[in-house]
Structure prediction request, 449 residues.
Amino acid sequence: MSGIDRRTLLAAGAAGAVLPALAGAKVPATAALAPTPPMGWNSWNSFAVTITEAQAIETARIMAEKLLPAGYSIFTVDHQWYDPRAKGYDYNADIVPVMDAFGRFQPDPVRFPSSAGGKGFAPLAAQVHALGLKFGIHRMRGIPRAAVAANLPLAGTSYRARDIADTNSICSWNVDMYGVDMRKPGAQAYYDGVFAEYARWGVDFVKVDDMSRPYDAHAAEIEAIALAIRRCGRPMILSLSPGETPVVRADHVRRHAEMWRISDDFWDDWKLLEAQFTRLENWSPHIGGGHWPDADMLPLGRIAMGARDTKFTPDEQRTLMTLWAIARSPLIMGGDLRHLDAATLALLTNRAVISVNQASSGNRPHFVADGTRVWSARAEDADRYVALFNTSDTIRRVALPLREIGMPASASARDLWTGGPAMTMRDTVARDLPPHGTALLKITPEVAL
Prediction:
């Protein structure tokens, strides 16, 4: 096997067969795949690269019961499901991945027993679908280095892995892959074969990593993956990671992906949350139309492989959810649902807040004072949403003139977090907020009698 351990072919079996194209299959236009910001759960913040099939099924059942009614529908298995020795947030430098005979990663059959015999993720995806959820996976950009070392054939072609690998194109933080040189014959066919297999498995969502940074160096592979998805015969949402995706490439990324990261990994640190305000403000002209700047997953509840609960304070957690809602970032829960507490569940499932994320328009920031952030958006009716944020370390009054959102001098404001009675506002919508605190209000014009 040209120096490659036979364990890399543990999953070959039936998966070694060339997958036929789905003749005549049509994939909807990209805007139809994610008409609203995607909502779901991802395993990274909870399990790193160690999630097992049993843990996945347990989590998916909780998700279907607790979060699906609020709209969280995409269940995603994150990184290195193909590494039999996956151990946490540190990657193995000597990885021996599970692959098929064509160099395509397969689930580790020890961690995912239903994948044995070349079934891949099809059985797990079927269980997830039966719960009313969509099934997502993570993959890295490129072709496995192990496939290149063995010079494995590419499915459905006369080419081999070394014919298309760009061994100078490597990820700075992971050793699994080489880039694919899209100028080489067989390169597009390789990606077509990968995503045809994902279609056979029943995949609905693919998070492709090592894509958005550096963006221009990877643009050809972004285009190739988008094309492979269109050809595969199954609608799949494409999520690009990590960031920071350059805003000047907004037109390109919107043509090829439904969501893309605007930052590196986001965790439960106030400085990281504070930085997301500026990034989301910069991306605000490009929100919507089926394409969504992604501020990353929600590190709420129990995280970091059970090591801790989120370090965000209750006020910061509400600020996080308010910002993601008003800026229409995808809502992807990262915390361990097996330890979902009542406060976190209430935070995630506030229907009025979710409606801001899913159904508002004209979302835009307003710049009014240092130490504060303000956003507004249009509701589906004639009302307006206003999000007020105190990013300082002391109590602050945060205000926005009603005229700035096209409202008359007298309007009523209803707090979407507390659901309390509406309050009359004169000339200005304003709240006194604690440090790192927020208010999310629905503003209704008062009609003079």
Remarks:
- The two ends are 84 Å apart (CA to CA).
- The chain has a mean pLDDT of 93.
